[in-house]
From TrEMBL:
<dbReference type="Pfam" id="PF09995">
    <property type="entry name" value="MPAB_Lcp_cat"/>
</dbReference>
<dbReference type="GO" id="GO:0016491">
    <property type="term" value="F:oxidoreductase activity"/>
</dbReference>
<feature type="domain" description="ER-bound oxygenase mpaB/mpaB'/Rubber oxygenase catalytic">
    <location>
        <begin position="14"/>
        <end position="240"/>
    </location>
</feature>
<protein>
    <submittedName>
        <fullName>DUF2236 domain-containing protein</fullName>
    </submittedName>
</protein>
<dbReference type="InterPro" id="IPR018713">
    <property type="entry name" value="MPAB/Lcp_cat_dom"/>
</dbReference>
Amino acid sequence: MGDEGLFGPRTVTWHLHADPTMWIAGICSLFLQALHPRAVAAVVQNSRFQDDPLGRLMRTGDFVATTTYGTTAEAEKAAARVRGVHRKLRGTDRETGAEIRLDEPELLLWVHCAEVASFAGVVRRAGLPLSTAQLDRYFDEQRRSAELVGLDPAEVPGSSREMAAYFARVRPQLRRTDDSDLIYRFLHRPFAPWWSLPANLGYLPLGHLGYSVLPDWARRIHGRPAYPPPVVAAGLRGFRAAGLAVPDQLRFRYPGDHVQRAVHRLGAAALPSAGALSGL
């Protein structure tokens, strides 16, 4: 066996992160992250996401895939690069004028929790057979990802109960702002070049589906209507079924080949699958 990296085939993370609905879960996490006024202000003031939306999303996806399926050295190198960027960047609190450091533990924890809670919640809702014990195990495993960006793993929620308690604690700080409205509009606009009409038409309903799978309390803060529940359920399951119908050799090669390289390194038994969860 080669280097399994930070997770490996015997983790929930390995199989959950390969699910097709991670695309929708990623969009959902961005809507959720936008509700923290200081976190979203720091992003809006420092990121070029409006000039290069597709590139920004691809870089985020590449980081998650590298830290999940890459070697230990690849994951640590990617994390060091992210920590270096966070150390350098500063923002300004829109209300107080105080400086915002992007590597503040409070903000890093918010981004982490919003991300992994969205990943698990959306993929599970779409049909991945994830038990409560496996959900707890996933949050515990994701403390490794939190440590990569500079957090103390002991301070990071490691179960569904701890995650729920975290969101209950932080919810009074969350609100709709001009910056969150900017993110909402951004995630509802086409990402591909203007000439790529099929890609843009395909993305537009997915963008709102990503919003519609937010927790009820988060949608109330955003204050925007969502798709009706039957549409959300059909959309999630339909997207997942379509993704799973794509042969593994193609699905795990584009847009990045992280899974394929991991299988080449570790053997065919490392191929992610929902069925493998039953043995964990």
